[in-house]
């Protein structure tokens, strides 16, 4: 049978729609026209159509290495998923589908409970995020956990480059065999979260990492994008920053499940206590998002390690409560839907800009908008009309 899909999110989640009596499948997308992708069902023992032996061996090698916990294979798999080259994208989708099937089997063996705890971490520059991750990660690896850190690094809007220097600031943790740190450039993606972060989380979980930390850039749109792909969202704040509640957007406090005031040591203990009290009173005014969990405000010091262990206790308490009440599973399902529509929007825009009926008109209309001959609204209507007529 042949299946037609409009987005790669449909493609990723199609297996969950298959009846139970179907044989195990692999999926592959091969482009036959500009307008649509044809996805074909292939038996596992057959050669994947359109793939060379070398590509098939690459998928098998990465998959086997990944589930055996090899960090080099995980790194290579994430690089493959991040690639924008169309051929590599197709190979990445086949690999992701295999990992997704394995992931589902492992969850069944785990009585339907999630395999990993996904944690989003954000805060303004200078809040001590890297120091905290180093201290927190070391504590978890000592307790026999496997930790992966996906650090999203902002790309320069001028040069398009990224420093990707987060690893250099976590020297101890990056040498730990039970930890994996991966900085990823945003490449100008809205929200500062790479479009492949969600898929990188899946690969990390497939590699046996049971705590996945997603660190984001500063304070802005990225928090909302990350909150849609993690189980728990933590806001890390420095103790001294002027008018505290003005300094942080209200919307970000609303998505935070836990607020940690870092650097609560030495001379900063008193300001840290004051800010903790301010946030505790501010949290009372916010609308409740969960029936079982009330957001907490803690004081910690990543430098001395004080309060970090207690913070992990609160995090596990959150996970257990959310899991028992069924809210965690419901949240993850909702996130998959949100992510599907995000990918649909992104892919539609890409398809629209590269459509033959539109591609040539874009520079001309942009020029007219720049010179003030056309209004942006009229130019957009003309492009959409050309797109509809060309379908």
From TrEMBL:
Homodimer. Interacts with MMUT (the apoenzyme form); the interaction is GTP dependent. Belongs to the SIMIBI class G3E GTPase family. ArgK/MeaB subfamily. It comes from Calypte anna. GO terms for molecular function: GTP binding; GTPase activity. InterPro entries: GTPase_ArgK, P-loop_NTPase. NCBIfam families: lao, PRK09435.1. GTPase, binds and hydrolyzes GTP. Involved in intracellular vitamin B12 metabolism, mediates the transport of cobalamin (Cbl) into mitochondria for the final steps of adenosylcobalamin (AdoCbl) synthesis. Functions as a G-protein chaperone that assists AdoCbl cofactor delivery from MMAB to the methylmalonyl-CoA mutase (MMUT). Plays a dual role as both a protectase and a reactivase for MMUT. Protects MMUT from progressive inactivation by oxidation by decreasing the rate of the formation of the oxidized inactive cofactor hydroxocobalamin (OH2Cbl). It holds the Pfam family MeaB. This is Methylmalonic aciduria type A protein, mitochondrial. One of its GO terms (cellular component) is cytoplasm.
């Amino acid at each position: 049978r042949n299946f037609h899909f409009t987005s790669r999110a449909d493609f990723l989640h199609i297996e969950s729609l298959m009846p139970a009596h179907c044989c195990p499948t692999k999926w592959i997308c091969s482009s036959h026209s500009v307008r649509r992708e044809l996805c074909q069902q292939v038996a596992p023992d057959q050669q994947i159509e359109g793939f060379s032996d070398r590509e098939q061996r690459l998928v098998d090698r990465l998959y086997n290495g990944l589930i055996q916990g090899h960090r080099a294979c995980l790194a290579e798999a994430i690089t493959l998923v991040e690639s924008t080259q169309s051929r590599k994208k197709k190979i990445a989708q086949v690999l992701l589908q295999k990992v997704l099937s394995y992931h589902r089997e492992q969850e069944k063996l785990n009585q339907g409970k999630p395999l990993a705890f996904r944690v989003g971490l954000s805060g303004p520059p200078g809040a001590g995020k890297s120091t905290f991750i180093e201290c927190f990660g070391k504590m978890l690896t000592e307790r026999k956990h496997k930790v992966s850190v996906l650090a999203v690094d902002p790309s320069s809007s001028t040069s398009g480059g990224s420093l990707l220097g987060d690893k250099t600031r976590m020297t101890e943790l990056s040498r730990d065999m039970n930890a994996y740190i991966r900085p990823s450039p945003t490449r100008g993606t809205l929200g500062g979260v790479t479009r492949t972060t969600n898929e990188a989380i899946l690969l990390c979980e497939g590699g046996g990492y049971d705590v996945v930390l997603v660190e984001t850039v500063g304070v802005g749109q990225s928090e909302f994008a990350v909150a849609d792909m993690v189980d728990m969202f933590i806001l890390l704040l420095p103790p001294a920053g002027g008018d505290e509640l003005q300094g942080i957007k209200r919307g970000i406090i609303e998505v935070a499940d836990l607020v940690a005031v870092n650097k609560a040591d030495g001379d900063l203990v008193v300001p840290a206590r004051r800010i903790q009290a301010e946030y505790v009173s501010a949290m009372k005014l916010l609308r409740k998002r969960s029936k079982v969990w009330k957001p907490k405000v803690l004081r910690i010091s990543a430098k001395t390690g004080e309060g970090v262990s207690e913070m992990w206790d609160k995090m596990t308490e959150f996970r257990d409560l959310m899991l028992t009440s069924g809210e965690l599973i419901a949240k993850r399902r909702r996130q998959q839907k949100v992510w599907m529509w995000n990918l649909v929007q992104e892919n539609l825009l890409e398809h629209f800009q590269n459509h033959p009926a539109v591609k040539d008109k874009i520079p001309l209309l942009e020029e007219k908008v720049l010179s003030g001959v056309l209004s942006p609204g009229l130019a957009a209507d003309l492009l959409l009309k050309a797109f509809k007529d060309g379908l």
